[in-house]
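[RESIDUES AND BACKBONE]
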Amino acid sequence: YTPLLTEGDIDRAYQTNIQHFGILRMGCDVAGGGSNYSVIVLRSDAGAEILYRENNPDTMNFTGVILQIQQKYQVPYIFVDKVGIGKGVYDRLMEQVPKCVIGVGNGDKAERNEDFTEIRTGEWLNGLKGVES
């Protein structure tokens, strides 16, 4: 495991007071405690903003936080880890707001499989086509 960016790189690139525009979407990474953090990022055409980062071992509590933030910002798309520890959060969100949830498994097939071998290397926005129905 080798990080692409250092913590310092990330800190220097961080902007505050982003004026979001375009399609809002949330990315949610679920952690089960230990030294990892559960994180929620709000993304738009203007950039990305970390809204939540906490060492929260209670995945159902984290699900509630996701739903509160989704409602507060009226986010139409929630991308959430659907593998391993994230499976329970994904299932609960599918029960609560199924039209908003897009499960992410990094090894899943990409929407544009002629350009990308797996979803982790693809473009998320292309995956939104047809989701609105």
